[in-house]
Each structure stands twice: as C-alpha cells, then as structure tokens.
C-alpha cells in the first residue's frame, strides 16, 4: 500500500540512499531536452511553494526498506531535485543549521565523488550567502575552499550544479521571504509538493525484479572500470611493459594478499586494489616534480590530494599525468609478488618477521589516507622494486631491506609530513637516498654527510649517519642501538642518549654509558612514568634544573606526553632532548637514580629537593601541574613574581595564580588547628578568564560578609565585602584572631616565591 509523503516527512522516517545500481542524476544535464524539462519542473515547484494552497503530486516513489534505511528503486531523479530545493531554501533563509541533520539522511552511493560533494554541500552551507550571489550559483560554489575541481568530472555533480543554477535563477527573488519561505516548503498541513511512497519490501520482491525494473544490472565497481581501462591503455601504449602473468596474478595470488589485509568482516577488496594503484600514481605524480619552496602548484596539489583521499579520478587524468607508464606495472608486479611470497610461501626464516613489518606498512595506505602512511609505503615499495627483492634471497640480503626500513621509517616518523608539499619532498629524498645506498645500507650511510639527505629532520639525518658509522666501526653497536630505538616514545630518535654517552677524554662513545642511559631513559619515558597522576618525572626534573620549554604565545611548558605527530612531539619532550642545556638536566637526573629503581629514584629526588625558588612550589604541589590541562604556565609581565597556571594556552581562557592557588591548597589541607575556622569558611577557588579580574581565594564569613585574598604587584591583599551594605574595605581588623594570624603567616611564606627575571614576558598576548 502506498503512503503520501513529502520529502521532509520521508526523512523523518528513513535514511534515504541512492544505491550504486542507480544511474547518474540526469535532470541537470545540458542537452536541449533535459534543459526544457528542468526549467518547466523548477518553475512548477516555485509556483507550488509560493502560492499557499497550491499542491503538486509527483506520482509514485518505489524503494525497499531495511530497518530505517530506504534504498531507492525508482524516483531518484525527482527526490534528488527535491533535496537540492530543500538545501537551497534552507540555506537561503538562514535555516541550514536546523535542516542539516535531516538533509544528511539523504545519501548518494553511486560514486565516491558524488557522495563527498553531497556531504560538503551540507556541511559548509552556512558559509554561503545565497542572496548575494549574482550570476551562476555553481561558479560561486566552485570557488569555495571545500570544493575540489576534480568533482567537475563527475556527471552527477555536474548535473546537480546545473540544477542549483536553475533553482537559484527561479527562487532567488523569493528568498526575501526568509523563514516564511522555508515554512511554506516544509509545511505538513497542506504541503505544496508530495509523492506516493510504495515500500517494495511489503511485496517480497526479489533483487532480480529490482534489476529488471531498472532495465540494467549492477554496474562495475570503480576498480573494475579502472582495470578494464588500464588493460586497454596498456594494449595501445608501446611504452607500457606488462609482465606476462600480471592480469592473471591480480585474480589469483595478489588477491590473496589483499584478502589477508582486509578488515575483519569485509568481503569486498576491490577498493584495496584501487588504493594500491592510486598510491603508485601518487608517488609517480611527485617523483619528477620541481618542488617549490612554499607550496605545490594548485593543479598538482589537487591531484595529490585526490589520489591520497581515494576520490574518483577520470582515467584521462592518469593519461595526462603519465601515472602508469614504462616500468610501473613491472614494479607493481615485483612488489605484490614479494608480499605474496613472504606470507604464502616463504623459503627463508625471515619470512614471518618481514611479513609483519611490511604488511603493517602496506596496510597503512589501504586503510588510512595520511601523507605519513604514503611516505612509509613509498619507502618500502621503492627498495623492494629497486632491488627486486625476493623472499628466497639469502638472509643477509633480506637484512638489507630491514636496515633500509629502519633508517627510512625513523627519518619519516620524526619529520612533519602533513602536506602535499612535504610528501613530495619526502618521496624525492627517499628516491635519492636509496640510490646512494646501493652497496650496503649501513656502510654507505655511514659515509654520507647530512646535506646528502635533503628535507628530513636535520637532527635525525645526523643521528642516522652517526649510528651507521658506529656500527661500521664496531658491529656490537647494532643490537645496542636497536634495543633502545624500539622504545615506544622515542620513535627511534635516540641521538640525545648517544650524546650523553660521549666521553670527551677518549673522544669516543661509551657502550656502557649508552646501555645505562638508554635503559633509564626508556623507563622514565615509558607509559608508566612519563606522566603519572602526581607528575614525578616533571617534578624530579625541576628539582635538578629549570627544564621548562618555551612554546608559542609566551608560555612555558612542562611538556605533554603526546604521540600525535612528529610536529607535536617536536614541540614537547623533543625540545628537551635536543636542547644542550635542558638535556643536561635530564642526564643529571639519570645520574641520580638507579637502573631498575627509576620510580623510587624520582621520588627520592623530589623528597630531597630544595631549589629555593618558584620551582619548589611545583615540586611540592603536583596539583599545580595537574591544573594546567595543556601543561603550560605563564610568568607575569609585572614585578609581582606571579606565575599563572593555564587551563588552555591563553590568558583569555581560564587560569589561576600560582601563589593564591597554593594558599588555597594549604588552607584546605592544613592540620594547623588555628586554621580550622578558615577551612570551614573556604569557598571553591576562584579562577578567572581574561584580565579584568584576578584569581582569588574566598572565605564566606557569613551570609552577608565575604573575605577575598588576591595577589598583585604589592603582594597578597585582602578585601572584605559586605553585601548587606554593598560596601568593600581593606580593613581586616575584625579578623584579629589566631586563625587570621596563621593565614597571614602562610601568605608571608608564599610571597617569598621568586621568579626568574628572564622569564618575565615583555608583552602578554591574549
């Protein structure tokens, strides 16, 4: 039985999906017939919406409902036009925020690019002021930062843009009605546009009938279309060298590789094949580019981004960019054969170990779309194909691959590769480095200079060359280095430990010191100790020296334990590791604790601390560090000697004052019987945001009287507020009690906190 609906009512009940079996959206096509139909249809819709009481029925919509998802069988064209109309009117009348969640329930699955355009159109609608656009709306949409020009090659997107131009042309003048126009469109009492929905599930119709009613079968997947094109392209291009068993292996051995790398419960692997091909095309796109100093050309940048994101790309672009040429398919064949051999039929004891290492890298590009994953994959792909490595090679040769991956991944993981530009630089540097390490990865690397390896972190390049030279001089360094490199937080960057083990008197690196420092540092920066609830590592370091690092915005940082990216790691503990003065405090600490008793050693250092300056208060009161969610503080830009504890990163956010916060803590936990009365009167600490007020400690003396203690240039000051008379006074003589005397003693003690002069900021940026 059919039910009369509006689109808005339908979306109340279901998530509507245009399935992959459906053809492209056609009502926006540019041919004369489609143009005539489009103009007449949109004008008719406008008349129905504008004229209250008018109504138009769009006949039957067919679909199959499973749970709350309606898969369209027939009616795609009409419903898509209605969707675009609802998007336009909601955006133009300022109701996009209200409409967004419901509009998101209408999805296109015919192509990835169609779906992404739909999603972006909804998500960024609030940035469009439709009433201000003259001319074609589609031109303005294409100029938006979120629009990818490659979408213009999708016929569904092209058609939608044409339809939006027509809707804008007809409805723009009516946008002046604002919310009233929106209310007319979605009203349910006498709706202007309706249709009859027939749930085919009620009739137990089979998928066979579904296909017959659409007059066609299921379309090929994007990869199947790509594969068919590639075969045809290879037959026409004499330069394309295709291994004899290439196409056969795609359906046999290599399919088994991808099957093993798929997500559990996923039985479709075409997309994994496609991601692999696009990753090869991605590397080819940047290998020969002239990389500019600041950013890629916009056309290059769009292509690189599209290949990385695995969006639909027309085959002509592959041809224009020579994405698959010459030996590309030979190299791909070598790589996939290698992956198959080390998993399916390894003839070497290293097979299982290599599969774990290589499959993790390969899986990175099949399941993620980051530039970091792509750079790791290129490092693996480049070396395997350049050396034509096979699993039956002697173990010594497979060790070369392991050595290469170790060096390449440490370079990659410790460098910020978060843009198309940096990805291009990484690929070109890896390509050049692999050609320099033809004889032996470690031996050849030890003879290089830092300038021979462009782009990557200078510190990491120098470290890799140093480590290689040590191994060449004494092979026993190899296992020692690998043992420390594998520690989780270091990501292989252990140059600071090597520098700490250098003995100037002997002009050499001590293996004994390296082992000792490596073991202790690994323990300190393990998940157990790097950031405990009571911050024993940070407090112990403060006990031996001022290790705080200076990030942006004039703040100083205790360092976060973040592992998010190389950029974040470099802004935290790496700044300590790579600063000769700061890292000196770390080695002083390492020398004061015993291996195997690191936790106990930190606690002993904290217990014996006597810095006689501001550090002592952070050491004695771990709550002060805990308050700082981003682990950042700011030293006052006045003579007060105050230190501000930041909840975020700016003074415009919530913050506390170190001295008043300590006063609050001391009063709250004091066992001094004289302070009992003030403990009972203590209010929650008063944190502030901005500079209009100072953070303070409050005591509620009575229902009408309150005592405030704050800290300014002159030191602690006390103010009495009488809310009954609405008066305030600095006269605290009424508190001439033992309790107030004890409170004053606390304030005098805390006022003695000293602040380093060079930490006082010249300006206080909000």
Describe the protein.
The chain is of the alpha+beta class and 766 residues long. Helix content is 51%, strand content 10%. It is built from 35 helices and 17 strands. The strands form four sheets. Strands 1-6-3-4-2-5 form a six-stranded mixed beta sheet. It has a five-stranded antiparallel beta sheet with strand order 9-10-11-12-13. Helix 12 packs across helix 16, helix 18 packs antiparallel against helix 19 and helix 26 (536-544) crosses helix 30. The radius of gyration is 34 Å and the shape is flat. The two termini are 64 Å apart. The model is unreliable at 203-219 and 756-766 (pLDDT under 50).
Biggest pleated-sheet summary: 6 strands, mixed
Strand content: 5-15%
Q: Give the beta-strand count.
A: 17
Strand order of the largest sheet: 1-6-3-4-2-5
Give Rg in angstroms: 34 Å
Secondary-structure-based class equals: alpha+beta
In whole angstroms, the N-to-C terminal distance is 64 Å
Stretches where pLDDT falls below 50 for ≥5 residues?
A: 203-219, 756-766
Basic shape? flat
Q: If helices are DSSP runs of H or I spanning 4 or more residues, what is the number of helices?
A: 35
Question: Could you report the average pLDDT, rounded to the nearest whole number?
Answer: 86
Helix percentage range? 40-55%
